[in-house]
Task: inverse folding
């Protein structure tokens, strides 16, 4: 999906209009209204408008806890969205605490193998990687990849994403020789499953090129 500046602004405008309509027709506390508000927050985040995204995520989380309860799957999802907003805004310590809480709650409420739980584990791994905790990230990514292959299948888009995440973590840990074959496998699978022009496929191609450059530089050094 095109996420250039123009398309993002169009998406934001459409979701703003949808939120206004939901609030008028359904009411501010209706579950569909809360879902629309969360989607608008995600659009803001993709557009780099982190402060606005966080404001909506915090409001949506508070309202979902009040209306749906703290353990409702939508509430758990709001918690993860807010953690992602914090991470994007550079509030890493808050993000990691919230990601850890979300993962623990997902395990308790949904079960260790639920797709949302696996997503939360991967998100926590990304937060660890973002803060330089590569070893902790690799442990989570390896576990998430194995579980997604078992639960979702080797060709599920989430599994493909986990393969790329693990390869990127290996690269960040200086383990380019392990990263390259994993990137190559992930790229081959992504081209076959998602298509050569898919954003995930293009990102994998870029990361594979970066891994080769890193390995060449290390060999020359």
Result:
């Amino acid at each position: 999906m095109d996420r250039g500046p123009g398309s993002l602004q169009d998406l934001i405008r459409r979701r703003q209009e949808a939120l206004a309509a939901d609030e008028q027709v359904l009411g501010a506390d209706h579950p569909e209204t809360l879902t629309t508000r969360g989607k608008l927050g995600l659009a803001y985040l993709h557009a780099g408008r982190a402060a606005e995204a966080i404001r909506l995520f915090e409001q949506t989380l508070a309202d979902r806890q009040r209306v749906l309860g703290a353990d409702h799957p939508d509430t758990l999802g709001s918690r993860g969205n807010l953690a992602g907003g914090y991470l994007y805004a550079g509030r890493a310590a808050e993000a990691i605490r919230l990601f850890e809480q979300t993962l623990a709650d997902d395990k308790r409420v949904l079960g260790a193998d639920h797709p949302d739980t696996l997503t939360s584990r991967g998100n926590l791994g990304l937060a660890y990687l973002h803060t330089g905790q590569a070893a902790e990230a690799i442990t989570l990514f390896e576990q998430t990849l194995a579980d997604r292959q078992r639960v979702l299948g080797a060709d599920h888009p989430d599994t493909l994403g986990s393969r790329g995440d693990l390869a990127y973590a290996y690269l960040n840990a200086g383990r380019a020789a392990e990263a390259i074959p994993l990137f190559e496998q992930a790229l081959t699978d992504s081209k076959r499953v998602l298509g050569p022009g898919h954003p995930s496929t293009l990102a994998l191609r870029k990361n594979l090129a970066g891994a080769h450059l890193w390995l060449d530089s290390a060999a020359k050094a």
Summary: The radius of gyration is 19 Å. Residues 203 and 220 are 26 Å apart (CA to CA). The chain has ten helices and no strands. The chain has a mean pLDDT of 93.
